[in-house]
Amino acid sequence: MHYGTDKNVAANTCVPYLVRGEPDSVIRLLDEQGASHGVLFPHDRRQTPPWDADYNEANGDVGIAAMKYPDRIVGVARIDPTFGAEHTQQLIDRYVGEWNCRGLKLVAGYDFYRPNDMRVMGPLLDKAEEHNLTVLMHSGDAPRDLPYLQAQAAKAYPNVTFVLAHIGMHAFLWEAILACQEYPNINVDMSQAYPFDIMTFVKNVSVDRLQYGSDVPYQSPRVEQEKLRVIGLSDEDLEKVFWKNAARIWRIDQ
Fold it and tell me: Is 4 within a domain?
């Protein structure tokens, strides 16, 4: 879940009441979905450049929400590793210590680096491994947010759990599938994916590597949920995708 909206991207969204700085709006969304937990992170782009260039203020708002509702909100920090090893690692250490940060959200295309460049990614992934943080990557936009490049990070850090959002955005579906086939520490979420893409992933990888994603406020939770129901998953598999897989990936007590 993106915490709030960016009017430069979308003046109207599917969940207009989800407002950054208002943790109760997150709980309202979870309650309306019948969800016990939600993974919360800042918007992908800097909303107030250049004042929050390293996303620190936006991450702080996520931290406040996670501390107010620790039993329901899994707080994830948006990180730009191009600020350098020392700054990146200091931020991650602080977020883990102050508000129990559980993961890192990366969007290489917006921050202008390649996810297979270990000179940039290495210090961040060292901390992800140290603190047992899940790494969530936007995937499916050329030339930087590509599953093939992201898979090289998973190869270099086999003890870190990765999630490729959107299963590669249709155009790069098979890159995401091949990445998951090659590296067992890669998972995907299905937000924005076509129902056919979700079926293709399940048949060629496993339902155990797939988790539900809403991509709110820009997508409709009802639509994203219905995609999983119309493709004919069993009740057991639906429970995995909606809950059990995410609980494992994000270390949520079951």
Answer: no
